[in-house]
Write the structure tokens for this entry.
Amino acid sequence: MTSAMADFDLPDAMRLRLPTRPVVGNSEFRAAMSAIGSSVHVVTARRGDERIGRTVTSLMSLAAEPPTLLVSIDIMSRLADLIAKTGGFSVAALADNQQAIADAFAGRVKAHERFNLGEWSAWPSGHPMLLGTAAAMDCEVIGSIETGTHVLFAGAIVDAETTTSRTPLIWQRHGYRQLADTE
Amino acid sequence: MTSAMADFDLPDAMRLRLPTRPVVGNSEFRAAMSAIGSSVHVVTARRGDERIGRTVTSLMSLAAEPPTLLVSIDIMSRLADLIAKTGGFSVAALADNQQAIADAFAGRVKAHERFNLGEWSAWPSGHPMLLGTAAAMDCEVIGSIETGTHVLFAGAIVDAETTTSRTPLIWQRHGYRQLADTE
């Protein structure tokens, strides 16, 4: 990642110690994580003619001032590379009728064909903007941390579109779920 | 936090830069974040006779090896202090019939009365274990990062209980939501 970060500040690092106690097995970990419900997002970036995106659920609010979110991206991925190079990324919080887009960006469709699904525009920054989402945000990277396998990018939100007419797509127990209607 | 961290390694820090572009206003930020659906968790810790807990939605999977999650806790809170002092915490991923517990630990009930709600046991570590959840985990802190307003704790999962008979409580658009039944 060193050369990829050259256009930008070097990331911080979180030094993870080895646990002193035995940890749970992989199937127990997966079972516990799958019990948790999370919104499904597509994180995207663009540099020149290259657009890339990936389906993620590891995204959370980090701070209100400045408005900042945190997203975890595979450190070996081209997406992490492009985010580091451009210093920005965009987020599409998928609506519950956008499962096909979630599947495509999770790997079911080849990287260069993924943007054929759904209707895409662009933020003023040039990063991709998906239409028809529950919410969409354009972010400027204001900090990053490498954890060994992932990079955590802190993104200040420079543009946002939110609708209240669509409900978010949820991932839980290894499948897509919808929110129940509220009474 | 310096003395609180004395029993333990010093946390890493994420240097957040100021954004170079204007960011969205607080109401736009809140609207975008509220469109996202998140599981509702109660994060707890215990030291001696003191038990403390807080409702959080900022929690995500960090790594599979070792199985690790990441949770964001207000840096000024007694909970962050206790987690740093003990080097551990526990997580209850609330089931959708545990809204009263979510409300209590979000601040509706005074700190010392919160554990009167729900049925509580303890993990072998001594950290509180809530029964009747969608999933419950006990974590050993293997890394931490201060971001200014929050501490991100990386917790390796040393114990976990998961049920498939309960669905998680979701927070979205400023209210509790349930997952729709799958067909």
About this structure: Confidence is low (pLDDT under 50) at residues 1-8 of chain A.
